[in-house]
Amino acid sequence: MSRRADYESKTEALLMPIAQRWGVSIYDVEYVKEGSEYYLRAYIDKPEGVTIQDCENVSRALSDELDREDFIPDAYILEVSSPGLGRTLKKDKHLQAALGQQVEIRLFKAVDQCKEFAGILESFDGDQITIAQEQGTRTFRRGETALIRLALDF
Fold it and tell me: What is the DSSP letter of 35?
């Protein structure tokens, strides 16, 4: 397990009872380096939407637990937020919840001179993602996808 995955896993384990206590679910946890800064991000969700108070409550409790456990030696910035409307669909549980919804897919390399596609998420498995478009269905290998997210429809 990589250092990043280890930090994310341990943080998610600390976050589970906190999320239960505050009535939210854990959407994702990520540990990333952006520029010269490290960020530990916890994304929380709930059916009626996440409030600033939810983020504050979870952030304070998680910060205390992280200080107590102290398993990340690097300086980092802790962020707790909602995954947002155009949420990234990284895990199978995210894709499962998005079946039948409009998604955007961005590829690492162009296919038919295009890197971005949109359609209704029809199905997925460990290797492929299929979307329905007006001109028919289109299947992409998961390894080719740089990003999958819910489409914003305004």
Answer: T
CA nearest to 80, candidates 37, 153, 26: 26
- The helix or strand, by DSSP H or E, that contains position 68, with its residue range, turns out to be helix 52-69
**Amino acid present at 8:** E
**pTM score, two decimals?**
0.82
In the chain the beta strands, taken as DSSP E runs, fall at: 25-34, 37-45, 77-81, 102-111, 114-124, 128-133, 136-141, 145-150
pLDDT averaged per 10 residues in sequence order, the chain, 154 residues: 94 98 96 96 95 97 97 96 90 93 95 93 95 94 94 78
Residue 154: predicted pLDDT = 64
Residue 39 burial by Cβ neighbours in a 10 Å radius (0-12, 13-18, 19+): middle
Give Cα separations from 34 to 39, 59, 97, 105, 114 (angstroms). 7, 20, 29, 23, 27
Parallel, antiparallel or unpaired: strands 77-81 and 37-45: parallel
